[in-house]
Design goal:
The complex is a heterodimer of chains A (249) and B (241).
Chain A (H helix, E strand, L loop, with lengths): L1 H24 L11 H14 L1 H33 L1 H14 L8 H8 L4 H24 L3 H9 L4 H38 L5 H10 L3 H29 L5
Helix pairs in contact in A: 2-10, 3-4, 3-6, 3-8, 3-9, 5-6, 6-8, 7-8, 8-9, 8-10, 9-10
Chain B lengths: L1 E9 L6 E6 L3 E5 L6 H9 L5 E6 L2 E2 L10 E4 L11 H5 L1 H5 L4 H14 L15 H14 L4 E5 L7 H18 L2 E6 L2 H7 L2 E6 L2 E5 L2 H4 L9 H16 L1
Parallel strand pairs in B: 3-8, 3-9, 6-7, 7-8
Antiparallel strand pairs in B: 1-2, 1-4, 4-5, 9-10
Helix pairs in contact in B: 4-5, 5-6
Classes of the chains: A mainly alpha (249), B alpha/beta (241).
């Protein structure tokens, strides 16, 4: 069953690669503009062997991990406080509502001046990109917990703190993970954009350098790596969510 | 001495309400929808604000927080914890009290046996039938050894056969454990089968209903809230005379 499903999924990919390779081999477009799949794979191998791809990937990965972990942790922490205390929610909701719709890259010029063009810039952008969605998903998750269930816990002897840890947070997990899953992919998109604009290292910077040298094969390799990383991050959170909520959802 | 005493209770539903529930009895509160039945239970539990006094065994509990009133409450929608399996739902209050795992599981097993759901121990609420959920809610409410048990129309969503079966079981468990219980309902069948005493509630007023009102009640199963209202109004007329 698994093999059948795998083959069914693999078939369109194979057709796509075959089509790509055939069109490139026809030489209708110069090879440096539209490289063949085999050329891209050859370059992929060279980039791995030379260590260039891994070095740049590690730069991007570390920025994504630091920014995403800090942003998500802050989003969850502030979301818990705002979700469980109405006064704080009402006080801070207007300001967060104003800041949330600003596109993350809109902050870039301001941050370039405030923190400079260095490794902190993409980290700060990813922090902002993760913070707001995770914050809103956490608040929504906490507020959507059935009030009767909270009353039941209170009657059974639980204090406010115990209700939060044993009932509210576990029931808010699906919402929190939806935010984490969506923003995990978004963090990669933001880091690439930031590296393209301002930072000399990382996958985004490698793509910009390749563009100036008309190395489309390297750009396609970078896009493939980016796609795999986005997918891997999203899948990781999906698996985690399923594992945590296994059985009761 | 009454176990539960409500003295001069006033809030958005009641005005100067007085009620006594005696030790170990099962008091049925009958009333149509919107009569204030759930509010009455919430006052006893301390879940809503009120003026007046609520006493348990003669001791005022008005300043006692909800989580310290030692109450078992079965909600209308049961409010089981969806993320916990049956054993964890039942053992929740014991976990809160910091009981040791062995002691907790022993008590949970006893309650599951009492409510005849031992075989459902590791299931989650979403995989239970209405009657099974009902039994889990009862076991959970009894786990903390409450002084008072409050039941808020717990049979609303069940079929006739299941209602009959659970009524008998709840009555039996209540008698065995001798817990003072307040049961609110709009179903006359519940009244005929369950109550030691019955009071009627309408428009925030409460009257004791004479048992002879139900002696000749036949085919009370699934009588509508309208029938219930008529029954309450009959009682009111007799009371007024």
């Amino acid at each position: 069953m698994f093999i059948k499903r795998f083959l069914v999924g693999l078939l369109p990919v194979m057709v796509f690669i075959l089509l790509w390779e055939s069109i490139a081999q026809l030489n209708l477009v110069p090879n440096y503009i539209f490289p063949a799949f085999s050329d891209v794979m050859r370059e992929f191998y060279h980039l791995i062997v030379s260590g260039i791809l891994l070095a740049n990937l590690l730069c991007s990965l570390s920025r994504v991990l630091i920014g995403f972990l800090l942003g998500s942790a802050a989003g969850i922490a502030v979301g818990i406080v705002m979700g469980s205390k109405d006064v704080i929610d009402k006080s801070f909701h207007p300001i967060f509502s104003l800041l949330y719709p600003i596109p993350v890259l809109g902050w870039a010029p301001l941050l370039m001046v405030w923190i400079g063009i260095n490794d902190l810039l993409p980290v700060a952008l990813i922090f902002l990109c993760s913070f707001f969605p995770v914050l809103y998903n956490t608040i929504t998750g906490i507020k959507s917990v059935d009030r009767e269930v909270i009353k039941a816990a209170r009657i059974l002897g639980a204090s406010d703190r115990k209700i939060l840890s044993s009932v509210v947070l576990p029931l808010a997990v699906p919402n929190i993970f939806t935010g984490l899953r969506l923003e995990a992919g978004m963090a990669w998109r933001v880091v690439i954009a930031a590296e393209m604009v301002a930072i000399p290292t990382g996958i985004g910077a490698l793509m910009m350098r390749s563009e100036s040298l008309l190395r489309m094969d390297v750009i396609i390799v970078c896009l493939m790596v980016l796609s795999v990383m986005c997918l891997a991050f999203e899948r990781f959170f999906q698996v985690m969510e399923n594992r945590i909520t296994n059985g009761w959802r | 001495m009454p176990t539960i005493e409500l003295r001069c209770i006033s809030n958005y539903v009641f005005s100067n309400l007085n009620l006594e529930v005696f030790d170990g009895e099962l008091l049925v509160v009958l009333g149509p929808n919107g009569a204030g039945k759930t509010t009455l239970l919430n006052i006893i539990a301390g879940l809503v604000k009120y003026k007046g006094a609520v006493l348990f065994d003669g001791v005022p509990v008005d300043k006692t927080p909800v989580n310290e009133r030692e109450i078992g409450y079965i909600f209308q929608n049961l409010a089981l914890f969806p993320h916990l399996d049956v054993a964890s739902n039942v053992g929740y209050s014991l976990m809160i009290k910091g009981k040791e795992e062995k002691e907790k599981m022993q008590k949970v097993d006893e309650l599951l046996q009492l409510t005849k759901i031992e075989h459902l121990k590791h299931r989650y609420p979403k995989n239970l039938s209405g009657g099974e959920k009902q039994r889990v809610a009862l076991a959970r409410a009894l786990a903390s050894s409450p002084k008072v048990l409050l039941l808020d129309e717990p049979f609303n969503s069940l079929d006739i056969g299941m209602c009959e079966c659970l009524r008998k079981e709840i009555r039996q468990v209540q008698r065995e454990m001798g817990i003072t219980t307040v049961f609110v309902t709009h179903n006359l069948a519940d009244v005929a089968e369950m109550g030691d005493r019955v009071v009627a509630l309408n428009n925030g007023k409460i009257w004791l209903m004479p048992p002879e009102m139900f002696e000749n009640e036949q085919d009370t199963e699934n009588r509508s809230p309208q029938d219930c209202l008529h029954c309450v109004m009959d009682c009111y007329c007799k009371h007024a005379q």
